[in-house]
Amino acid sequence: MTSSAAQDHSESAPAFIEMLGISKHFGGVRALNNVDFSIRPGEVHCLAGENGCGKSTLIKILAGVYAPDGGEIMVDGQAHAHLTPAASQRAGVQIIYQDLSLFPNLSVAENIVFRRHLEHPGRVVRWRGIAAQAKGVMSRLGVDLPLGEAVGRLPIAARQLVAILRALAAEARLVVMDEPTASLTHHEIDALLQNVDVLKGHGIATVFVSHKLEEVMRIAERVTVLRDGQKVGTFAAGEIDRYHLSELMTGHKYTSSLKPAYSGTADPILEVHGLTRRGQYEGVSMAVRPGEILGITGRLGSGRTELALSLFGMNPPDSGEIRVKGKPVRLKTNRAAVRAGIGYVSEDRLSLGLVMPQSIADNIVVSVLNKLTGPLGLIDGARRRNTIDQWLGELHIRTKSADQPVQQLSGGNQQRVVLAKWLATSPSILILDSPTVGVDVGAKDGIYQIIAGLAGRGMAIILISDEVEEVLHQSHRILVMLGGQITASFHPATVTEKELREVISA
Amino acid sequence: MPKYLRAAFHRHDVQIGSIVLIMGAFFAALSPGFLTLSNIGDLLENYSVMAIMAAGLLVVLISGGIDISFEAIAAVSQFLVAVILVQFGGNWFIAFGLAGLFGALLGAVNALLIYYLGAISVIVTISTMTFYFSVLMFVTQGKSIYNLPNWFTTDVSFLSIPFPVIVAALSLLVTLILLSRLPIGRQIYGLGGNPEGAKRMGCNILGLQCLAYGYSGFMAAIGGIVQAHRVEEVVPYALIGRELDVLAAVVLGGASLSGGIGTVSGTVLGILLLAVLQNGLTLLGVSSYAFGVVTGAVILVSVTATAYTAKRQLRGMRHAA
Ligand SMILES: Nc1ncnc2c1ncn2[C@@H]1O[C@H](COP(=O)(O)OP(=O)(O)O)[C@@H](O)[C@H]1O
Ligand SMILES: [Mg+2]
Question: Which of A264, A492, B100, B103 is close enough to B217 for a disulfide, judged by CB 3.0 to 4.6 Å?
């Protein structure tokens, strides 16, 4: 679609919802400043911007959760100073939050029509009626899910579908999805985007909140970009490309690749021969050299995370050999791996990497406490302080105080704290599993810089990621895993993004 | 329950039901006194108070909380009602009505504390249990009430079904209707399954919690009255210490300590299981301490299972992420 086509569209169709001059403060924080946002009937509109730019706040004002400090909201041409949650829902606005807010213990059918229980609290529950209503909603979306299955047993993508069906059952005219794809695979994202199409077919508008540029560009008809609580602009999707969009979101330009030059002559520091763990991966052989960034990519379930866990001693292989600096090692525990000089930053920093309620400082030093002890075996406060300060500085962790709980930091800063924790153990091999998941475009760049810096100093890096661009631009060599085996190996210069994508989903 | 909802809970019911039958057959073979009409009648009557209280506790567990204070609430309500009946006389309606009122109010206090303090239910209800019980002991000085009215202590039965069994059956029936037929009951399942989701959906969380804890208090107090009727006296400390037996029965019946899951049918089977086990062991002359070991083990196993499942779910989520 071109910008002029978008223009025509806007002139012929009056906006369903128009938010004008919306401002919102939280204490001293100006979350939104004079933001305009309009949604046309049936359109797919992306709301893009870095973490903390105010996307969720804008959505919550639309949902009636927050009242704006200034501005007005027009629904079908009717002005409101603010909406109540009930008024917003009556107008047909349905929000699907990132966690989906479903009831895992209840059946698909009951989840879809749960609102009945609130709207008719005095009516006896008729199970047949619930099943019939849920079935009706499913047929509108043209999908078929097991009505009686507990939602908690469904795969994530099906749960997302249940959330959409629930919105549909509530007579939605606008479905807002706040960061819906964070936990989905590429395949599942495809399915989701198809459902957005179906909604569109029913004349239901979708607002898609995301900071994943690829998706934004795939489905949006229009994109509204926020930065620091201000609106940068609304663009027809055809007007801008991904690089332009990332500039709009962050306000500065990017070099696409940051990796240092690498010649590849040194002896491998880590070698793996015929490593197998039944049901997870099979016959994996590879090597990584000091200063090299080895990218491993593959779909979810391809065995990449399991392999990484094995290299870190948390998932012992059934057979095969691991050599560090030429010597065979047996990594039966993660402590053995740390002793062998291996560090591991998990895919899910929330459950493996960080103790969220504890302070930044404690998280950084937790794995090196034994190195910080003084003569009596007690922690030497000064050395603890030094270690913490060193890494806060080196990784540019922006914080008011190192005693702040980690859970209050942004995704990008949390990821830096995990890195600091591992770097404090001075590893010679660092495994990074999906290091930029849930991290903004701008903050991603900072993490790439850190990775490049570590490789430049001679650390061997294994970079696991399902983001194709990431491995393509940030690594020196790329291995593709599929069904537990390494199926291809590339040098980034010899392969395009498209080719790589095809190999991964072969 | 409709076909498509049954599946999720069916399996557990069948498992527990089979265990009950197998154990029953075992005890019947070993002890001729087990499978007699009088023993079974006694069994039902002996466990009716537990069943009434379990019905209330089940609702709290489904809502995602736990109630440790219900026996203390029962003891306090029992005492208050006994004093009133002795002073002013009354009838069964007044006895049950007042007990239910006191129990519901004392239970609702739990809900208010949990909601407004944001404290976890186990801490709050242990505190209120201690407080209610201490006040009761202070006021009564541990003295029992023996001079209950005649109508209150006289055995009644209907179609030769003892009165306590009838009250228990009614309590379970009312709970069944609440949980599977009333929208508010379904909201309690929702609250237990995903509190944040229930809030966003617009459920009245305070209201639902007041209902759950109030209901638990209500049922406990009804159970307290039935217990006083059976033993023909009110002993302030008679009920204290049985909390975990009731909890074990409900959890054995498939209710989850992490909320959102549990059924009346499962609870009935859980009680039957404990009843058959205890009765059988007694008939076989096994020490009554063995029963304590069993209930302790049940709670231990179910807590472990809950923690294990939670851990596995977390793993599953991690792999999905
Ligand atoms: N309830 C709140 N209280 C205080 N500050 C908030 C609250 N909600 C959001 N903020 C702040 O407002 C800004 C915008 O946040 P948010 O709308 O959540 O951003 P986004 O969804 O784009 O990541 C952030 O600086 C955030 O810290
Ligand atoms: Mg947000």
Answer: B103
